[in-house]
Design a protein that fits this description.
Blueprint: H1 10-17, E1 35-36, H2 47-63, H3 78-90, E2 97-100, H4 103-114, E3 123-127, H5 132-144, H6 149-152, E4 153-156, H7 166-171, E5 177-183, H8 195-204, E6 208-212, H9 224-227, E7 231-234, E8 248-252, H10 297-313, H11 315-336, E9 343-344, E10 357-360, H12 364-373, E11 376-377, E12 379-381, E13 385-388, H13 397-413
Parallel strand pairs: 1-11, 3-4, 3-5, 5-6, 6-7
Antiparallel strand pairs: 2-8, 7-8, 9-10, 10-13, 12-13
Helix pairs in contact: 1-13, 2-10, 3-10, 4-5, 11-13
Length: 427
């Protein structure tokens, strides 16, 4: 795609008219007089997702308890069904993915399975700028093993409070480390770690490693299969548009299928004997064996329609559009907003940048509220970051152009100065 951008109003029209993914926009519920720039936090509802969710509701209305037996036991085996749609997005076999619970519960499941501390190898390696739920889960699992986090959790510090260096992570892989959990992309800066480099180093040192894909799934073309990491976790409600509260996913490398899940539940039992209701757990020896409870059908059903769309569009195409439209936004920011004190707080290199733009400003919070009052839905992260996400499947180039011009107007009129500092629960 052309990256010799222009800052005039006709140029984004030209880009939209030649966007091979532009037609997907019609399949989402877009509000008039509103520009949605928050797909990194919660993706928009699509007609495809609505259709599959409504279909599940109709099946429940029609069949009651017999819903588990309709359509070839589809809903009874819903994790496997959705895994077939997720597998191509991350480059693994479908039996290496389970869809279950919420992200935090899935992290607990993974850590409880793979954290087997010994006298000499008992530490879990994390960083200090990841989304905090990962750290909460790690600290909790360490305590359950009788350790204190200050002794058994090794924290790699960001060198500048914003970014991580892969070499710093690798240097911290000392003999007492037995497990690593890191994000693919950071929620605040959109930085992408070199998963291949870090995973290779961990394997060479005999350390198990897992990746949190929450801020990269659906925007980054990932190949977990060739990476050969031990596990991965992710949510399905951000870029994948699975809906608020959508079930999360767990990848278990097939070389670990013989392990027992740390948190066993009846849905991890072999489906053939599940309703024999034996008191002894018969582990299903693939990723489905890490399921815990009955499938949350309505928090999974919308995912079905959304994931079909991703398979139809193709992750390589989605990544290409995402990189191009975010690069266009960065160009406009530098052309029109730098004079107002805005700084691009994400790395600009394609290989190191996720799907959102991090716009930094000392008045970031009040400016983000002013944006919302003008119909631009973005979010704010402390201390000074406005996160803006032009999403490949439903954001137009004209919307990107309009958002930047709205920011120009907010700064020229100083309308943000009229906004107080008291915050809502969700910002």
């Amino acid at each position: 795609m052309d990256t010799k951008f222009e800052n005039g109003p006709e140029y984004p029209k030209l880009l939209d008219n030649n966007d091979p993914l532009g037609h997907y926009r019609q399949r989402f519920y877009l509000k008039k007089d509103s520009i949605y720039m928050c797909g990194n936090s919660l993706g928009l509802a699509s007609k495809d997702a609505e259709e599959t969710l409504q279909h599940a509701i109709e099946q429940w209305k029609e069949h009651g308890i017999k819903i588990w037996n309709v359509e070839g036991n589809k809903y009874y085996l819903y994790s496997s069904y959705l895994a077939r749609l997720l597998a191509p997005l991350v480059g693994v076999r479908e039996n290496e993915i389970a869809v279950l619970e919420c992200t935090s519960a899935v992290i607990h499941q993974a850590i409880s399975t793979f954290y087997k501390p010994t006298k000499n190898k008992y530490k879990i390696l994390v960083d200090d700028i990841n989304f905090p739920t990962d750290r909460y889960a790690v600290d909790s699992q360490v305590r359950l093993k009788g350790y204190e986090p200050k002794d058994a959790v090794k924290v790699v510090k960001s060198f500048d409070g914003k970014y991580m260096k892969e070499d710093d992570i690798i240097e911290a892989m000392t003999p007492e480390v037995c497990l690593i959990l890191l994000p693919t992309a950071y929620y605040r800066t959109a930085q992408i770690l070199d998963m291949k480099k870090v995973t290779k180093a961990a394997k060479e040192k005999g350390i198990l490693i897992g990746w949190d894909l929450c801020h990269s799934i659906g925007v980054l073309d990932t190949d977990l299969g060739s990476l050969d990491a031990d596990f991965a976790v992710w949510c399905n409600y951000k870029y994948l548009n699975g809906g608020p509260g959508a079930a999360a996913a767990l990848y278990i490398n097939r070389k670990h299928f013989q392990l027992l899940p740390g948190l066993a539940g009846w849905y991890g039992n072999k489906p053939e004997t599940q309703f024999h209701l034996k008191q002894e757990f018969e582990h299903q020896k693939d990723a489905n064996g890490w399921q815990i409870g009955t499938p949350c059908v309505f928090s999974m059903a919308a995912m079905e329609g959304a994931l079909r769309m991703f398979n139809e569009a193709g992750m390589a195409n989605i990544r290409k559009k995402s990189l191009h439209i975010t690069k266009y936004m960065m160009y406009l920011v530098e052309e029109k907003l730098a004079k107002f004190g805005f700084v691009i707080g994400n790395l600009k290199n394609d290989s190191q940048r996720g799907g959102h733009i991090c716009l930094e400003h000392d008045e970031g919070y009040r400016i983000s509220v002013a944006l919302k009052s003008r119909g631009v839905i973005a979010d704010f992260r402390d201390p000074n970051v406005i996160r803006l996400t032009p999403t490949a499947l439903y954001t137009s180039y004209m919307e990107v152009y309009d958002v930047v011009n709205i920011l120009v107007d907010i700064m020229e009129t100083e309308s943000y100065l009229k906004i107080g500092l008291k915050r809502d629960y969700v910002v």
